[in-house]
Amino acid sequence: MKQHFPIIFLTGRPAAGKSEIIDYLKNCSTEERLARFHIADFIEIDDFPMLWTWFEEDALLERMGKPRLHSDKEGYFKHQYLWNLLIERIDMDYKKVLTDKKGFKENGSAIIEFARGSQHGGFREAFSCFSKEVLETGAVLYINVSFDESLRKNKRRFNPDKPHSILEHGLPDKKLTEMYKDSDWEDFSSEDANFLNVKDVKIPYAVFNNEDDVTTKGGDLLGDRLEETLNKLWKLKK
């Protein structure tokens, strides 16, 4: 009998607490993680390292006197479709894991992490770029914070010495506002209290409310809320 989520889409606004949840799960034993959260030994697939590589490549190309490929000098994508390309890359990377690690779907979990704002397509468009095979396997954990809280935590976590870091990267206030203030999550999820409908696939979702920032506080407060939310999601996914 299945005991774990094969795929969890972990999403929300920037700095909502997604990476902190993953860090918490990394520090749980396999037994505790399975028993409390229905997550087996897991891999992470996050589009931020992909995106950051593009920025680094563009900086190197500019230094070489060549055209930038992905972004302009202000760090905005040259083409809107590059946001969807990131999702296609995530989908492809997950399928490569299934090929390379026999039995992974039956024995392991994948946590797929990304954020989207309406300015660059929103959650509805992002999810539409996943294959039906991946959508049918997944469940969505949405980390809910207001834009003001996203802005506050984005400032707090940013370490200028480690802009490439999963836990310490950030965006300038102006760019965060332009790209992420408007979100289509409420509209996207409003059709059903428990399922998102994408490509005629019903994907279960649950909302982890984090306006009080339990992900930074950590400890039992985070663990208990995460357990409660994932158990709700588990009942929908079974």
Description of the molecule:
Strand 5 (195-198) and strand 6 form a beta hairpin. By secondary structure, the chain is an alpha/beta fold. The N and C termini lie close together (10 Å). Residues 158-169 have low confidence and may be disordered. Helix 8 runs antiparallel to helix 9. The protein has one domain (7-48, 80-154, 181-237): 3-Layer(aba) Sandwich (Rossmann fold). A six-stranded mixed β-sheet has the order 2-3-1-4-6-5, sandwiched between helices. Helices cover 50% and strands 16% of the residues. It contains twelve helices and six strands.
Structure at a glance:
The chain is α/β, with parallel strands linked by helices and 238 residues long. It has helices at 18-26, 30-37, 47-63, 81-100, 104-107, 122-128, 132-137, 147-157, 173-180, 185-189, 214-217, 219-237, and strands at residues 7-12, 42-46, 109-114, 138-144, 195-198, 201-209.
Fold blueprint:
Elements lengths: L6 E6 L5 H9 L3 H8 L4 E5 H17 L17 H20 L3 H4 L1 E6 L7 H7 L3 H6 E7 L2 H11 L15 H8 L4 H5 L5 E4 L2 E9 L4 H4 L1 H19 L1
Parallel strand pairs: 1-3, 1-4, 2-3, 4-6
Antiparallel strand pairs: 5-6
Helix pairs in contact: 8-9
